[in-house]
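Thanks for the sequence, V.! I ran YbhB/YbcL family Raf kinase inhibitor-like protein right away. Repeating your input here for the record:
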Amino acid sequence: MTFALRSPAFADGERIPQRYSRDGENLSPPLQWQDAPAGVKSFALVVEDPDAPSGTFRHWAVYDIDAQRDILAEGTTAGAKTESLGHGINDFGNPHYDGPQPPPGHGLHHYHFKLLALDVETLHLDRKAPVDEVMKRAQPHILEQAELVGTFERN
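Predicted structure:
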């Protein structure tokens, strides 16, 4: 089997439902994965929009996800912090998920949910580390990557 990332809320290449956008409830979508590679010690998840007018826009990073997990529930970053997940600072300046909100009329945007299987238990990041720093720190530790792409457009 192949390391795969899925969501019960939308299929790969399909539209992200409104509730997961900043115009909706701004909840992180439920995510599930399977067939992680041997030797994985933790996971990191990054969500990026390469179609943003100013270049790649980073919407979310969660890291130090326990290797035994295979799911992030809907609204993982909403409300009180219930576990020791690390959260990167996104390009909105927030340490949580912020969903799609492309400029009206800018066309279809693609949101890349990238799940990284890592060979380390922790990335040892500062609590205020930006999403791009999460990616840089994770890069040399990636065993395998799974990706799910959702789309969103505002008229």
